[in-house]
Amino acid sequence: MNIKRTLQHLVIVIYIAATASAFSYTLFRYKVPGVPDKLRRWSYGMMAPYQTYRTSNEMLTAHGLQSDGTWVPISLDEYLPFLRGERGMRSYLLTFWAQGEEVLEQKYKELAQVTKRLEGDRGREWEDVRLTLEKWPMSPAGYEYLRHDPFISVTKLHD
Amino acid sequence: MTNFWDHFWLREVPPHALAIVRIALGLYLLVYAGLYIPNLSVLFSSDGFLLPLYLDRFPEFSLFLAPPSPLVTHIIYAVFLLCIAGIALGAFFRFSVFGTIAISLYLWQLQLHGFATSYNRILLLCLLVLLFSGAHRTLSFDQWRRSGSIFHWEPISILPQRLIALQITATFIGVGLQKLWLPLWTKGEVLAYSFISRWTTPLSRWYSRLPLTIASYDVVVILVKILQPTAAVGLWIPRVRLPCIALWTMFLLLVATMLSIWWFLFIIPAFILFYEPETVFSWCRTRYGDRIPKKPVKLTK
């Protein structure tokens, strides 16, 4: 058996093992022993879209503190130029979310500082910037139809 | 048994099916990457709204892991687009694929990276498979350089074609079967809510306002649960392949137009990989006649 053929068989075996392991995890949450976790998770990630859904809308929002002590909404449209769904997913900072709550909060804090810097570059100076997550019920009448009191709730994302 | 194994995984075949997928994937990636062009500075540069992923962990590599200036970002992105064009044209193919993979990973870790999504993972797998595939052995600039005609061809291993086709099948079967036990896929609410969520489109908004009961959504969910795994297996059965491709194409188009999740559309041209490469070759010869030689080209150097 020459080297090329050996490598081809190696690729086939690794691929089958990863896919079979991902299947067993997808369907039964069973981890096949001997398959590295990263390989299984990678393969699982390719067969796991759209497992869940939300019953309320959520959106990352920013507010800037003025010198008179009032908080004013900042539009993030310019900084998040994505379709609404993709924008939402990116706003969760899922890569950092996977590293734990503490890291996630720290990253939102950093993102608030980035927002403050970018706003300053555009001539809009704020004493401070804070990021929050707004949540409101969905409605067939429109995405933002119920985005107002008393339906809206706000979660602080960092200190 | 050995013969079947070798025949299925390792035989030498004409490269046309994979070359067609290479061209389609290159064009798709050009569109995907092109959509970011108006916002390069804000997405990938030091003037942008981003949180580099690895900078905290490896500060000693800040030269590579920190966001570059807007000018450098634009230069890198221009190289990125050239690499992608190289995939579509089959020009300096391995370099182009490697460049596309390397730069896309670099840009991904820089920006406000989404989770590693299913479609990006499948795309990356396809690119890795293409890297060593010989998909540029026909209908390519490289083949023109090698033998004087883009229509000349050289045989390649069927393995890359099998890997991509099997991954598409695995994705479809996994996606389909897990709906059988996922608690949130037991009723039609998953669709009803999705159609009015942030993934909504004008089409799904219109649909959600129709006077339909939740029972109609339940029926759609049951149909999806039955059809997805069935049609995934059907892709490998010659007699029902075409209707299964039509079903999956319709499904992917609906996901794109009703949930604005359009990134899976690159799978549609890849359905050609479920046909035997010899069949695709014959079809190409029927379509283009003797411009495509019957025998592979013999290179003297």
List the helices and strands and how they pair.
The complex is a heterodimer of chains A (159) and B (301).
Chain A: H1 3-28, H2 37-45, E1 56-65, E2 71-74, H3 84-91, H4 94-97, H5 101-121, E3 128-137, E4 153-156
Antiparallel strand pairs in A: 1-2, 1-3, 3-4
Helix pairs in contact in A: 1-2
Chain B: H1 2-9, E1 12-13, H2 16-34, H3 40-44, H4 62-65, H5 70-89, H6 93-110, H7 118-131, H8 141-147, E2 156-157, H9 159-178, H10 189-194, H11 202-208, H12 214-234, H13 238-259, H14 267-270, H15 277-288
Antiparallel strand pairs in B: 1-2
Helix pairs in contact in B: 2-5, 5-6, 6-7, 7-9, 9-12, 12-13
End-to-end separation of chain A in angstroms reads 63 Å
H and E string of chain B: HEHHHHHHHEHHHHHHH
Query: In angstroms, what is the radius of gyration of chain A?
Result: 22 Å
Give the biggest beta sheet of chain B: 2 strands, antiparallel
Overall shape of chain A: it is elongated
- Structural class of the helices, strands and pairings of chain A? alpha+beta
Q: Looking across the biggest beta sheet of chain A, what order are the strands in?
A: 2-1-3-4
Helix content of chain B: 55-70%
Query: How many domains comprise the coordinates of chain A?
Result: 2
User: SS-based structural class of chain B?
Assistant: mainly alpha
Characterization of this structure:
The complex is a heterodimer of chains A (159) and B (301). Chain A has helices spanning 3-28, 37-45, 84-91, 94-97, 101-121; strands spanning 56-65, 71-74, 128-137, 153-156. Chain A has 159 residues and is an alpha+beta fold. Chain A has a 4-stranded antiparallel beta sheet, covered by helices on one side. Chain A starts with a helix and ends with a strand. Helix content of chain B is 62%, strand content 1%. Chain B has a two-stranded antiparallel sheet with strand order 1-2. The longest helix of chain B is centred in the C-terminal third of the chain and has 22 residues, at 238-259. The two termini of chain B are 37 Å apart.
